[in-house]
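Example record for the data management plan.
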Amino acid sequence: SKAIASFETIERTFPTLMEIASEALPIRAGILTESRGGEVTTTLWHSADKNPEQVEQAMQLAKLFYAQLVGAPRLLPFPKLARVGYIALPLVAFPQPTFGALVLRGWDRADEEGLAFADALTNLIAVAVDRYYTTKEVVELREKYISDLESERELRETFVSILTHDLRSPLTAAKMSADVILRKPGVPEVAERMARRIGETVDRVNVMISNLLDANRIRAGERFPVKIEKLELRSVLKATLDELSTVYGPRIFLTEGEEIHGYWSRDGIRRSIENLVSNGVKYGYPERPITVSLTQTSEVVRISVHNEGAPIPLTEQTHLFEPFRRTRNADESRVRGWGLGLTLVRGVVEAHGGRIHVESVEGTTFTLELPKDARAFAEKAAS
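Corresponding structural encoding:
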């Protein structure tokens, strides 16, 4: 049982099994014949005193026995040949048909107890061999599945890169045309209003394209590209929130505090706050405030964005930062989204050598924890 439980291959396990069988049964040789993939394979165990002619005869007989055994499983003792007894037993793993035979050679007597032992041994061998090949097939299928997924991912990333790159040219042309209309004197009010709307729409699409490209890069295992510079963080947050207030109204607040100086990516911080505030507007309770707070220690700064809304289930929080993943509440709402914003935020934070976490009990709070000086980490990641 131990030998069969640790079954590796026919070549490594079968000799051990035959040694056990030879001690329990009056046999001098064992032949395992199996059919896999249309080919019949024969493995022979025999005593050291057997000459090559006897071995060849045993292998030929084993193939003959296999041909006769393809059918319903049964014990099939053969008559003595050249004063040597044989017994052939089918290898079956229910509910599959017979796939091989175990031939025991040199059987001088065949009592009921010996036949029962041989039958039980055959069944165990059949299960072990079948399990080995099934496991091997599963591993091969798994490797093929992984290979197919990698090919699909490469194709998808190439498609996204080409698509977003090709979209930039017509969008740039539309933006420039809208700007020309706005700069032209005497433009009718309706045309001016439509030109501004075109410009705003193009800007939003450009942001979506940038998010898609960056999320695709993060998903591929690359670092979010950051340009680290010396900043006063509170003023960066205030300018970003002032712009967002023109879109979402006076419901976004920055808590009071002192100036905080350090080295970060201006664009990365701005885009992270834009995404977190935008999420708060989309999924928080309407008209309820969105609060941004900034604190520091001697080594790190923490930026927290809090919205008052339905809490996010704990089971969904672990998947929030994966690309194209949205919460159930988000999917059930009428708010459209790609599920890329939080992936981008995570990429920005990791590019600074920081971390992000979420707490969702009464409302939801996302907290970005960044080192005060991200230069060393950014330089190391780029090298």
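Summary line stored alongside the record: The two ends are 55 Å apart (CA to CA).
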